Amino acid sequence: MRTKISSIHFKATDSLKEFAEAEVGRLNKLDDRILNCEIEFSYTKDDKKAHIQVSLNGAVLNASETTDDFRKSAVLAVDKLEQQVKKLKGKLQAKRAEADEE
Prior knowledge:
Elements lengths: L1 E6 L6 H17 L3 E10 L4 E9 L2 E9 L2 H32 L1
Parallel strand pairs: 1-2
Antiparallel strand pairs: 2-3, 3-4
């Protein structure tokens, strides 16, 4: 999985980048077909936002979270993506099962 990390209006620290890469690595355990991952950090006066986009086999999944900390936002966004990946994987398995029955 290729990971691209960007930050808007600030320079992300190396530890934040490493943390974010480790978090999105959790998604690879669910589905090894994830090809690309883009992580974008941005902030406003009080909120810190993490937006993560992953692409796998023709599907693009997005999740965003805003909290008072970039790490919390990244963890919550990855949690959302885990649910999306599980749901997508379930749909694909159901389609395969239907195709096998026919």
